[in-house]
């Protein structure tokens, strides 16, 4: 590979600390690997900058990245060794050196910062008094522990009568409990943990507020003044421009009286703006006085005579814009200075109370984690920082410890990848190891791709070093810019440059998109045309869907994206609109696939590297996949497009997990009607809605469980089929409840799968592979939970409830390989580091998520805590000066990060980029986007950028200035002439801009495509006028569906049920007790009645089904290596009692004679001597319903059962055996009764195991007889 000059400089420079600002697709990872390998290839005897791999510290953002880097280095070293050995005079010393590096590579410090910190802590645990056997707790375990600690802490403080907590609860709590208070404490705690010295930072929050004695004389003395001042100042610039525009309109009025009226109106705004200008130089009181006039804005002159309607409309539009702007500023200046200072003093007391609570929680939480010997990642980083900082350092002081000095001597170079995503704690750790004045750090990143603010990453660290290193006279470090992109076509790069040059500015988005930041094409990306086929055209598209046409003229829907976001209307209505967008995307995907266009693939050797586009070449990116991914997946599947949605939620909402959750809840506590009804209605039991109603009606005064117990009595009048299903379920429930007390939740779940066949059942449904993967993941989650200190079914269910109550979900199982030919749907965050030939960015008009900005308490690292003032007397909350400042800062940082997220999304595309959005009243929205097309400024105004609320707000505003943005300008109705931006970056870009009416998207909302007056009448809420004959209507409503013979065919039947329904012998021929015996289900711990009832009724003996199950359990658990005489069997029964397989009372009912006699028979001896033996073997299979029901074709019954014994003899013959406890042992009657059952068992064993059953037997425990079948 030929390296560019900038890349060579990054690889070879050893004179200074280096910051590499690497643009998207610039090959930064390859450069980092080459820098490592090139220094390993140096001869240490000739070059002081030769490195050993075990003396490098390489920090990556993910474990996968660390492993990839190790593999790349390994591959390069192996290649270098092979190349050297091919030389005629190979340097054996160099070969040995490189072979040594390969050996050292496995233990090299190439890892994430968390892994490195764990190593530091475990190697120096004695320095901070921590148990070295600590483990990293999983996130879910920590969530539960946090809740437990908070509940205990609050309860204790309430019991103590803590007045501060009571006041805090009165002001910021809700009638629903303390959850809102918990959130405040947790958010502030988590924010503090992102600081190097949490307690010191928390204490500083209190000092920001004036005390009762009045520390601050003026608001200018606070840290929040510069923020509010800047918010007002940046809006003053466009305010003056609007004022000048109003003056220019008025001066052209010919009629003096008309002009005078409008000039009077303009002078009002002129006076306000002039007053505000002067007040900004004076103080808050003057500012408040200046804005006070906005409480009495005069009406716009109503004169129409002598004024052209178009001119007056233009005047009104500009005036409204100016008035709105002044109102925005006025909202920041609601009260006079004395009032605001007094509110700050009052709020300061609340801040002190909250800080105290957080410190108490931090201490209690730390103690709880220490008691369990667990830590989180933040703990590990702080422990490492404490180890590296000297014990003699003052609070907040950084002074290297002896351990830090030792590590400085060990590491020759410290390399940090993805530097833009580090935080201050991690920065201090690296600084401790690198030392001051040493040229030994190499940091790589791209601040434009810093998108992990929610993980506390701080792009400001990158920007600070960037500004320091870019100075020509800086001697400590050097800035190297990698601006050449080797990923995307020049058409994609030009479009990205065109947008971001206009919208990414230092104010307000923190970054300047200049020549060093722009993307330049690297080596030609597939510019050799393919020999066969055509390349992708129209590389960049912007498609905007106008939803107005789909709103049926409802003016209530006529709102823009900003209003949608501010009112938090991301609801069902929004999802319905998204279906339109999803359909448009589906149409475009099908068109692209059908076009047969060629895409470049560097791994493809034929056709100059070009191959036809495939499904997996396309990806749909969303800011958040919640709900939207499901819509996309459904719409694409309806359009026969294979699709896979990689989501981070939805696990608890899947049908199979909800049913298992309900079943586990019933096992824990059966008296939960909702969960129990869900299980009964599920395929596990198989009751219909009608059956449930009959069951509940049979015990009106009791709950559902009471009704089930009543159904299991002779007095019950329920249908036999319902009673059999309930009896079967009660038997299983009894065993599961006992099992839950003896084994872990994972084992319990697997046993449920075996007993019910539910795992196999969901596998037969649509999407069965994913459903089964979800069930396996449930077991994995249970296993992870069991590995914590929280164990048992009750606590596992409590954990699930906590997750759902907190609206926290888990991701569904992944069932897709990387090579699968499907369209992928994923979040923009998950796409980082990936690339795709065709990229769709969906939901472009979706408003940013600003929910956190509505919290009563906002926290910022630098500005501290912004808190609402609460007046308990009037139960009212007011904005404080501090909260306004923190909110304004938060909003800017939110917009800055969202802009970086958009940059990441657009730079994923290699060949084609399609951006799609929708909004109501697109014409009105387009007018806003085209507001500045007549200016020649290279960047959009600051105030305009501050008003951005969606990705479309950035992209559409930029594209409106481009000649290809003409469709958008025309749609907006704006009459301004577009002015070209001189020397605009990316001006050579080409765009395909489409404005689409909702009705123009084919294939969606079939109701709208049908001219059905009845449906339209219902939609608008009007009374229905019946035109249909009543008789015809009644006939339609009473239509009897033709079930084609399947009405009585169940979806699922056990083998026992099949036997009962279709065996040759009728139930009338059975002896008393046999029916109960037949209902016994094979398996452990299935005893129909609760143990306390059995003990109370012990004298009456076991019921038939209980006795049958008991004997099967004994035969299953016997150790066949024993003598199996009467003494041995009794000893084994005692062991079973000790192991809680059965109770002592139940052991007394075991037919010991029948058991001993069995092993004296020929078949018993053959079982003992079998080469392979299966006992209680469960199975599930699909049976042809036509074999059992007349007039049924193409339908199947899901069947399951348990084979008592299947064994293989030395000669390879398979024998099937079943135990029976019937009192009627007449061979002919038994054969009729159980013939079908053994046929089903035989067919299942042969079909599933692929064997041939040679012999079948029944052993009658009642009289020890053996019956060959």
UniProtKB/TrEMBL annotation:
Residues 63-101 form a coiled coil. Signal peptide: none annotated. One of its GO terms (biological process) is double-strand break repair via homologous recombination. SUPFAM superfamilies: P-loop containing nucleoside triphosphate hydrolases (SSF52540), Restriction endonuclease-like (SSF52980). One of its GO terms (cellular component) is cytosol. Its cofactor is Mg(2+). ATP binds at residues 22-29. The heterodimer acts as both an ATP-dependent DNA helicase and an ATP-dependent, dual-direction single-stranded exonuclease. Recognizes the chi site generating a DNA molecule suitable for the initiation of homologous recombination. The AddA nuclease domain is required for chi fragment generation; this subunit has the helicase and 3' -> 5' nuclease activities. Heterodimer of AddA and AddB/RexB. HAMAP family: AddA. This is ATP-dependent helicase/nuclease subunit A. It comes from Anaerovibrio lipolyticus DSM 3074. The gene is addA.
């Amino acid at each position: 590979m030929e390296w560019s000059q900038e890349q060579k400089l990054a690889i070879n420079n050893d004179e200074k600390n280096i910051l590499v600002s690497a643009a998207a697709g610039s090959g930064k990872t390859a450069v980092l690997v080459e820098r490592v390998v090139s220094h390993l290839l140096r001869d240490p005897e000739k070059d002081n900058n030769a490195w050993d791999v075990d003396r490098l510290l390489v920090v990556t953002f993910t474990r996968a990245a660390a492993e990839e880097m190790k593999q790349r280095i390994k591959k390069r070293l192996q290649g270098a060794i092979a190349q050297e050995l091919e030389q005629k005079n190979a340097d054996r010393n160099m070969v040995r050196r490189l072979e040594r590096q390969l050996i050292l590579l496995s233990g090299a410090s190439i890892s994430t910062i968390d892994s490195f910190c764990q190593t530091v802590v475990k190697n120096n645990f004695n320095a901070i008094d921590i148990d070295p056997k600590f483990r990293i707790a999983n996130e879910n375990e920590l969530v539960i522990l946090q809740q437990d600690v908070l509940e205990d802490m609050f309860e204790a403080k309430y019991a103590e009568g803590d007045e501060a907590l009571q006041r805090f609860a009165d002001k910021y709590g809700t009638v629903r409990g303390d959850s809102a208070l918990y959130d405040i404490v947790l958010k502030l705690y988590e924010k503090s943990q992102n600081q190097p010295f949490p307690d010191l930072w928390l204490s500083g929050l209190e000092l920001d507020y004036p005390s009762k004695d009045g520390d601050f004389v003026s608001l200018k003395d606070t840290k929040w003044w510069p923020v509010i001042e800047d918010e007002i100042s940046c809006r003053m610039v466009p305010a003056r421009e609007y004022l000048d525009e109003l003056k220019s309109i008025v001066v052209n009025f010919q009629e003096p009286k008309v002009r005078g009226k409008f000039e009077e109106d303009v002078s009002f705004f002129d006076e306000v703006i002039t007053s505000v200008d002067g007040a900004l130089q004076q103080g808050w009181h003057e500012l408040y006085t200046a804005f006070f006039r906005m409480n009495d804005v005069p009406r716009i002159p109503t004169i129409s005579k002598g004024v052209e309607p178009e001119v007056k409309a233009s005047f009104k539009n500009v005036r409204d814009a100016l008035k709105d702007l002044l109102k925005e500023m006025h909202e920041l200046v609601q009260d006079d200075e004395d009032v605001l200072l007094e509110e700050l003093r009052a709020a300061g007391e609340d801040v002190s109370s909250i800080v105290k609570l957080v410190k108490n929680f931090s201490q209690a939480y730390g103690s709880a984690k220490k008691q369990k010997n667990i830590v989180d990642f933040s703990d590990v980083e702080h422990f490492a920082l404490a180890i590296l900082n000297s014990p003699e350092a003052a609070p907040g002081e950084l002074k290297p410890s002896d351990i830090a000095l030792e590590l400085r001597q060990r590491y020759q170079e410290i390399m940090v990848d993805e530097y833009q995503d580090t935080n201050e704690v991690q920065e201090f750790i690296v600084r401790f190891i690198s030392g001051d004045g040493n040229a030994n750090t190499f940091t790589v990143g791209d601040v434009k791709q810093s998108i992990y603010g929610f993980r506390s990453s701080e792009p400001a660290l990158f920007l600070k070093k960037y500004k320091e290193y870019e100075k020509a006279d800086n001697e400590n470090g050097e800035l190297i810019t990698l601006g050449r992109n080797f990923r995307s076509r020049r058409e994609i790069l030009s479009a990205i440059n065109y947008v971001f040059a206009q919208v990414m500015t230092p104010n307000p988005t923190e970054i300047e998109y200049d020549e060093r930041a722009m993307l330049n094409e690297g080596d030609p990306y597939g510019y050799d045309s393919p020999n066969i086929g055509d390349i992708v055209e129209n590389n960049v598209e912007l498609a905007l869907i106008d939803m107005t046409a789909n709103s049926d003229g409802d003016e209530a829907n006529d709102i823009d994206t900003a209003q949608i976001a501010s009112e938090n209307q991301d609801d069902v209505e929004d999802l319905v609109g998204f279906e339109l967008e999803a359909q448009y995307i589906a149409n475009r995907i099908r068109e692209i696939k059908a076009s047969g266009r060629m895409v470049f693939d560097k791994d493809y050797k034929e056709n100059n590297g070009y191959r036809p586009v495939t499904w997996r070449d396309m990806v749909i990116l969303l800011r958040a996949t919640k709900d939207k991914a499901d819509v996309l997946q459904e719409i694409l599947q309806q359009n026969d497009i294979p699709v896979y949605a990689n989501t981070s939620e939805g696990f608890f909402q899947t049908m199979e997990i909800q049913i298992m959750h309900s079943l586990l809840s019933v096992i824990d506590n059966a008296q939960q009607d909702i969960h129990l009804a869900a299980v009964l209605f599920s395929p596990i039991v198989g009751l219909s809605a009608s059956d449930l109603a009959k069951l509940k009606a049979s015990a009106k005064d009791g709950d559902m469980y009471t009704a089930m117990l009543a159904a299991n009595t002779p007095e019950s009048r329920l249908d036999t089929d319902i009673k059999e299903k309930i009896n079967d379920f009660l038997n299983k429930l009894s065993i599961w409840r006992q099992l839950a007390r003896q084994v872990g939740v994972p084992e319990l779940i697997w046993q449920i799968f075996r007993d019910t066949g539910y795992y196999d059942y969901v596998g037969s449904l649509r999407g069965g592979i994913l459903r089964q993967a979800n069930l396996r993941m449930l077991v994995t989650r249970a296993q992870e939970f069991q590995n914590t200190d929280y164990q048992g079914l009750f606590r596992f269910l409590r954990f699930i409830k906590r997750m759902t109550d907190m609206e926290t979900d888990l991701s569904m199982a992944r069932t897709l390989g990387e090579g699968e030919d499907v369209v992928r749907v994923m979040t923009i965050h998950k796409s980082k580091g990936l690339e795709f030939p065709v990229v769709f960015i969906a939901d472009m008009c979706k408003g940013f998520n600003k929910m956190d900005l509505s919290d009563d308490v906002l926290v910022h690292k630098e500005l501290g805590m912004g808190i609402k003032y609460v007046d308990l007397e009037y139960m009212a909350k007011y904005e404080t000066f501090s909260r306004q400042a923190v909110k304004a800062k938060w909003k800017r940082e939110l917009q800055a990060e969202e802009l970086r997220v958009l940059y990441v999304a657009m730079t994923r595309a290699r060949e084609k980029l399609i951006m799609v959005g929708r909004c109501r009243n697109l014409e009105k929205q387009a007018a806003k986007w085209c507001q500045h097309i007549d200016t020649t400024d290279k960047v959009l105004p600051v105030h305009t950028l501050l008003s951005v609320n969606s990705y479309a707000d950035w992209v559409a505003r930029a594209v409106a200035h481009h000649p290809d943005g003409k469709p958008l300008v025309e749609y907006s109705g704006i009459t301004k002439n577009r002015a070209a931006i001189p020397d605009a970056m990316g001006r050579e870009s080409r765009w395909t801009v489409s404005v689409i009416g909702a009705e123009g998207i084919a294939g969606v909302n079939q109701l709208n495509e049908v001219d059905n007056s009845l449906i339209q009448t219902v939609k608008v809420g009007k009374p229905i006028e019946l035109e249909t004959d009543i008789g015809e209507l009644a006939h339609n409503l009473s239509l009897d569906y033709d079930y084609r013979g399947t009405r009585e065919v169940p979806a699922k039947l056990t083998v026992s049920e099949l036997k009962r329904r279709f065996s040759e012998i009728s139930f009338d021929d059975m002896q008393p007790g046999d029916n109960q015996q037949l209902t016994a289900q094979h398996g452990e711990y299935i005893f129909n009645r609760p143990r306390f009832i059995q003990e109370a009724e012990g004298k009456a003996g076991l019921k038939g089904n209980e006795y049958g199950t008991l004997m099967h359990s004994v035969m299953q658990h016997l150790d066949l290596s024993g003598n199996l005489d009467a003494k041995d069997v009794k000893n084994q029964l005692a062991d079973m009692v000790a192991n809680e397989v059965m109770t002592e009372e139940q052991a007394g009912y075991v037919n010991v004679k029948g058991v001993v006699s069995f092993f004296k028979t020929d078949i018993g001896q053959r079982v003992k001597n079998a080469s392979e033996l299966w006992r209680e073997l469960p199975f599930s299979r699909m049976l042809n319903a036509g074999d059992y029901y007349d007039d049924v074709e193409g339908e199947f019954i899901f069947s399951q059962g348990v084979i008592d014994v299947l064994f293989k003899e030395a000669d390879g013959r398979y024998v099937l055996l079943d135990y029976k406890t019937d009192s009627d042992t007449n061979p002919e009657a038994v054969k009729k009764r159980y013939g079908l059952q053994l046929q089903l068992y035989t067919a299942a064993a042969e079909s599933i195991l692929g064997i041939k059953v040679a012999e079948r037997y029944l052993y009658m425990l009642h009289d020890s007889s053996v019956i060959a079948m």
